[in-house]
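Q: For a teaching handout, I want to show students what a protein-ligand complex looks like in token form. Below are the inputs, and the small molecule is adenosine-5'-triphosphate. Please produce the holo structure.
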Amino acid sequence: MIVVEDLHKSFKRPGGRTFRLPFGKNRRSATAEADRVVAVNSVSFTADDGRITGLLGPNGAGKSTTLRMLATLIRPDRGSARVDGHEVTRDVLAVRQHLGFMPHNAGIYPRLSARENISYYARLCGLDRQHAAQRVGQLIEQLDMGGFADRRATGFSQGQKTKVALARALAHRPQTIMLDEPTNGLDVMATRGLREIIRQLAADGHCIVFSSHIMQEVAALCDHIAIISNGSIAMQDSLAGILQRTGENDLEDAFVKATRNLTTETQR
Ligand SMILES: Nc1ncnc2c1ncn2[C@@H]1O[C@H](COP(=O)(O)OP(=O)(O)OP(=O)(O)O)[C@@H](O)[C@H]1O
Ligand SMILES: [Mg+2]
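A: Here is the structure, written as tokens, with adenosine-5'-triphosphate included.
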């Protein structure tokens, strides 16, 4: 389960103003607010076990930044987030044990084979050699990776990379699983296969959070939807709840209505 309360994160605007200190180092200007990009601005939501929660938002909305904070890869400026009861800023190791994260750009090692990539990660997560080998074999079968499991990852297709990244996220059997745009670049059959896996994980009691900007995908898969726009949650509810609250018949129209009052990207 994930509980997020009032998370904030901003970044130094690339190319922002700096001034040169006497000893030669560049430091950010003290008038810094304007030099920062607000990526996440007071995000709160809950993702329950046994359910699929969708973080739905357009490009630049703050989805990846939110997920990266939950995955302990970057620190929030303020606010709190707990993964299975463990606070992301204090209990980093416990969060990592409970969480499987599939980042947007899979970041797999090109010189290792698919099997070695997954196995390396499983070992990092604390599985001994024998258990890692067993688990990796199981995932290769489950995700139908047999045809390329022992090839070096360099040159893998998008779908093959996605499968390796997903297997890596599942290697240590985490209770909570976060997937950042998992169907990006997948063909129809691969997308259907991934949806089945996600549904099965939720049916087995796992907490699943995935981000997407694709309305139909979120509508088809999610039990709970958090609409994020310009770094803030505009609305969260079940699909039926969102349609009812906005008085619309489809998620796209509901999305437009729910986000209408938030500031535009260019105003940030
Ligand atoms: N390291 C960074 N440095 C500067 N700005 C950043 C950084 N990371 C994110 N941002 C900015 O924060 C905002 C939110 O970015 P984020 O990647 O979270 O969006 P997203 O919803 O995942 O978008 P997409 O659908 O395109 O993946 C964007 O304006 C982005 O440019
Ligand atoms: Mg993203």
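A: Two things your students might notice: The domain at 2-111+173-267 is CATH 3.40.50.300 (Rossmann fold). The longest strand covers residues 36-47.
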